[in-house]
Amino acid sequence: MDYLSDERKKSDFDVEAMKVAWAGSIQEFQLSDRMAKLVANDPVFEKFTRPMLGRKELLKNTLRKSAHAWKLIIDLRLSEEEAKWLRLYVDEPAYTDLHWGMFIPAIEGQGTEEQKKKWLPLAKKMQIIGCYAQTELGHGSNVQGLETTATFDTRTDEFIMHSPTLTSSKWWPGGLGKLSTHAVVYARLIVGGQFHGVHGFIVQLRSLEDHSPLPGITVGDIGLKFGNGAYNTMDNGVLRFDHVRIPRNQMLMRVSQVTKEGKIMQSDVPRQLIYGTMVYVRQTIVADASKALSRAVCIATRYSAVRRQFGSRDGGPETQVIDYKTQQSRLFPLLASAYAFRFVSEWLKSLYLDVKQRLEANEFSTLPEAHACTAGLKSLTTTATADGIEECRKLCGGHGYLVSSGLPELFAVYIPACTYEGDNVVLMLQVARFLVKTVSELGHKKPVGTTAYMGRVASLMQKNSAVQTAEGWLNPGAVVEAFESRAARMAVRCAQELAKFGNPEEGFAELAVDLVEVAVSHCQLIVVTKFFEKLQQDIPGKGVKESLEVLCYVYALFLLHKHQGDFLATGYLTPKQASLANAQLRTLYSKVRPNAIALVDSFSYTDHYLGSILGRYDGNVYPKLYEAAWEDPLNDSDVIDGFHQYVQPILKQRLHSAKL
Ligand SMILES: CCCCCCCCCCCCCCCCCCCC(=O)SCCNC(=O)CCNC(=O)[C@H](O)C(C)(C)COP(=O)(O)OP(=O)(O)OC[C@H]1O[C@@H](n2cnc3c(N)ncnc32)[C@H](O)[C@@H]1OP(=O)(O)O
Ligand SMILES: Cc1cc2nc3c(=O)[nH]c(=O)nc-3n(C[C@H](O)[C@H](O)[C@H](O)COP(=O)(O)OP(=O)(O)OC[C@H]3O[C@@H](n4cnc5c(N)ncnc54)[C@H](O)[C@@H]3O)c2cc1C
Questions:
Q1: What is the residue range of 216's domain?
Q2: How far is the CA of 427 from the centre of ligand 1 (A)?
């Protein structure tokens, strides 16, 4: 029985076509769909018992799933794209993520041709397992502050890897704790007693025979992390070197080379390329944000249509909680954000692929913008997603707190995304630096790409919003101009404040809070713009484009409402115009309402991937919640272990004293 069938009948767009729009193309949809079903129908990938497992069982279970996934990849000859979808739907962080997601890309991006030829075939056949060992106990954000040393010894043509202090211990790398045989280790290069910056080195950590740590290496897991199950399927590790020697050719030498004689040769490649793997991963994290948020929103939307509270008339049914305006005002902006993040990630991927191609041809001019966009959008989307998952939990009331809702585990596994691959505030400060530089160069350099609007700063500073009615906000030009003006005015105002400081670094530190707000406003502008640009494309299917248009306005006007202080303070909007935007937002929520279930069905998630009783496709929530409670191990017996030992004596004592 489909308890949501009436809801599904209300929608006015073609869901199958929306699934394609969400996936990006029919090919991508079919590929994703095939992998989702493959995983959902395979008992090895069962995940409901995960939160009940102890750490050792949990990790072993992950190893079993990873081995099974690898077997499927080989046996079914899956392409790299198919393998990525498979990994997504298996839905369990594993050491293989860092091997494929960071170790291999680090060698691809920073290795010489010779190094790639030697290491990539071994890694791609998984004959070695690698991780990305950058962060230390004492430093994560400040990469230049890393303390591990790689000292060149001209006599033996080797580097000596060493951990000189406790705080230099590598700390956090995923896959390092128990599984990696190798790592790309980031360390201070020392040649002839001089420090030459931080570089990557391929270091073997464990024996390929018996997996024991090699001499001079101390390695282990850093311990249990937030939440049951969740990220504890990953062996984040600690690593120390005691004068471990590696051959000279294991330094990744695309950026700088060290010769046999101990000379440092700089290539034309900028030093920042050493950070290139992070640019790649940040881009993938933006795509993952839309997946995590859409998953939470799918659960909260379906449950909000099933759940009823208050409002019964003459004994009739109570009101579905999705019909409360307050519920809509919390849920629908998240639904719109999931779509917005999906489309901005699509754009970011194309920007990244373009930069990658240029880098391969030694053309580096677009790297700063790629860095600013990946850093800023990673920060913006992961913050909104982490907050959004928690909001979805609250939108599901008490039942959202049950593990069987799927939301606690999703939250626990997701929140480190705000920290890993760059703390979100630190990353926004990078965007701010980029914007301040752009503003300072306006007189002699035409801004391009996502900062092109800064080239129109004079007019953006003068012109105020012309919107006169609520309908007036349904105009891409009016909305984009509002976001451009806000970002440009905030940037210019900050630049003026910065100019008052004699020392720019001192000014940057003092104004950091305002600078982060500027960076956020710039990143929101990118997301809004890319959503409107997506709508310019041919999007087939009855009502699909129209529904996306509604979501685009919901996303933009929700932000405008939330940050109306900025829009008003910069003088671009009047209070009346801000309140017209809010009135329009209410109308838009009414347009989303009949399509809400169809819009989350369009994510095409299987019940296996959602992992949620509240989010079941058929809406059969209460019987399944009731059934699941009886499956809890506590309900194996009526009288629990420990009762006779610890509780009964107390009860007896009370009975005894009652008699007295
Ligand atoms: C068969 C197939 C199977 C397929 C399976 C597929 C599986 C794939 C799975 C993929 C999923 C991957 C899952 C990942 C899970 C997450 C794991 C998390 C891993 C980590 O966390 S790794 C560690 C990350 N660490 C950080 O992010 C540290 C943050 N800090 C920094 O980035 C920098 O240090 C900082 C803060 C940016 C720099 O500070 P500062 O010291 O001021 O800077 P510098 O002096 O060093 O440089 C300034 C200069 O450089 C520019 N810059 C900075 N960063 C970059 C960059 N990344 N790119 C380009 N340029 C950069 C900066 O703008 C400055 O430029 P100027 O022109 O102003 O000088
Ligand atoms: C689950 C998980 C997996 C990880 N996997 C890996 C991995 O595989 N490989 C790896 O190398 N690392 C990994 N990391 C480490 C991760 O990259 C770092 O934790 C991250 O970069 C943040 O650095 P930090 O811990 O030094 O934070 P800190 O920089 O110490 O942050 C602490 C606080 O200080 C603030 N702060 C720091 N600097 C500034 C500044 N300049 N201005 C203003 N505020 C500032 C931050 O905003 C934050 O509030 C992982 C971390 C986690 C949680």
A1: 129-267
A2: 9
Q: Are 206 and 125 in contact (CB under 8 A)?
A: no
How far is the C-alpha of 552 from the C-alpha of 335, rounded, in Å? 10
What is the ipTM score, two decimals? 0.98
For 272, the enclosing helix (H) or strand (E) is: none
365 domain residue, yes or no:
no
Rg, C-alpha atoms of the chain: 27
Residues with CB under 6 A from ligand 2: 98, 132-135, 139-141, 172-174, 231, 236, 416, 419-423, 425-426, 429
In a domain, 528, yes or no: yes
Identity at 512, one-letter amino acid code:
A
Q: Are strands 182-191 and 130-133 parallel, antiparallel or unpaired?
A: parallel
pLDDT of residue 514: 98
The enclosing domain of 207 has a CATH number of 2.40.110.10
> CA 561, CA 567: separation in Å to the nearest integer?
9
In the chain, how many domains are there? 2
Domain boundary among 569, 601, 633: 601
CA distance 24 to 30: 11
End-of-domain residue from the set 232, 248, 267: 267
DSSP-based three-state secondary structure for 533: helix
All residues at 6 or more sequence positions from 621 whose CB lies less than 8 Å from its CB, including other chains: 3, 303, 306, 307, 399, 613, 614
Protein residue with least CA distance to atom 28, ligand 2? 141
Task: Give the pLDDT means over successive 10-residue stretches in the chain (660 positions).
Answer: 95 98 98 98 94 95 98 98 97 98 97 97 98 98 98 98 98 98 98 97 98 98 92 98 98 96 91 90 97 98 98 93 98 98 98 91 90 98 98 98 97 98 98 96 94 96 96 98 98 95 96 98 98 98 98 98 97 98 98 98 98 98 97 96 96 69
CA 519 to mean position of chain CA atoms: 18
CATH number assigned to the domain comprising residue 558: 1.20.140.10
The upper half-sphere exposure of residue 448, i.e. CA atoms within 13 Å in the direction of its Cβ, equals 8
Q: How many residues does the chain have?
A: 660
Q: Which helix (H) or strand (E) holds 608?
A: helix 607-610
Q: Tell me the helices (H) and strands (E) count for the chain, helix number first.
A: 24, 11
pLDDT of 653 reads 87
Dist. CA 98–CA 359, nearest whole Å: 22
Q: Residue 618 has what pLDDT?
A: 98
Confirm whether 563 is domain-assigned: yes
Binding residues for FAD: 135, 174
Atom of ligand 2 nearest to the CA of 132: 9
What is each CA distance from 410 to 95, 233, 297, 385, 616, in whole angstroms?
19, 13, 12, 11, 16
How far apart (Å, rounded) are the C-alpha atoms in residues 2 and 306?
11
Tell which atom from ligand 1 comes closest to the C-alpha of 437.
68
Sign of CA dihedral 67, 68, 73, 75: positive
Domain contains 379: no
* The pLDDT of residue 658: 58
Angle value at C-alpha 299, between 294 and 301, nearest 5 degrees? 90
